[in-house]
Amino acid sequence: MHHIIPFRLTRDNSPTNLIPLCRACHKRVESVFHDVEAVEPPLPVTRLVLFCSIHARRTVTLHMLKSSAHAGQRAAA
């Protein structure tokens, strides 16, 4: 599980601040966060940027998994 807004900033372990990510996606999201954190935007802006980044990565991952599953079904047929 990945904290959308780092735990050290909010102490928030609620389900709305957590999202499952694979290791590769987690690394990419962490890189984005470090870039955002470097300019020190207000917390609501930080939250929006990270939320969009994480959900974009999640969407790509889900699309890849769905495509892979369809390819496997076609190969089995």
Describe the structure.
By secondary structure, the protein is mostly helical. The protein has one domain. The mean pLDDT is 78. The chain has helices at 7-10, 23-38, 43-76, and strands at 2-3, 18-19. It starts with a strand and ends with a helix. A two-stranded antiparallel ribbon has the order 1-2. Keywords: Endonuclease, Hydrolase, Nuclease. GO terms for molecular function: endonuclease activity; nucleic acid binding; zinc ion binding. Residues 1-29 form the HNH domain.
Instruction: Report the end-to-end length measured between terminal Cα atoms.
Output: 35 Å
Uncertain runs: none
Reported for the largest beta sheet, the result is: 2 strands, antiparallel
Let me know the average pLDDT: 78
Number of domains: 1
Number of strands: 2
Q: What's the assembly state of these chains? A: single chain
What string gives the helices and strands in order?
EHEHH
Tell me roughly what share of residues is in helical segments. over 70%
Q: Count of DSSP helices?
A: 3
In angstroms, what is the radius of gyration? 15 Å
Q: Give the structural class.
A: mainly alpha
InterPro entries: HNH (IPR002711), HNH_nuc (IPR003615)
GO molecular function: endonuclease activity; nucleic acid binding; zinc ion binding
Domain HNH: 1-29
Keywords: Endonuclease, Hydrolase, Nuclease
